[in-house]
Amino acid sequence: MSNWLNAKPPIDVAVANKICDYIGMDITVVIRRAEQRVMEDLGPYPSLAVDSSQLPKDEKVAYVLDKVKAGDQSLAAMNDPNKEKEAERRRWQIRAQGSWTA
Known about the structure:
Layout: H1 2-5, H2 13-23, H3 27-42, H4 57-70, H5 83-97
């Protein structure tokens, strides 16, 4: 089992669970220890942030719409002469709700 924990051939979860049951050890303890060793050896996991500038146009649109649906982003018109007023009004609405600070 130590070979599997040292990133040698992967072990099936069912097999690992059976081995842990057989030796009387909780599999979550084994997994936590393995994760600690990986963190010590390789450092923390890299960020999974998406660089939207690298996406094709249709994927950018889908990405932004997903962020808008989740409430993580707002949209403002690009060619609207009142876009600055509308954006500022929206910022004040968000501030009034207490969910955003500038």
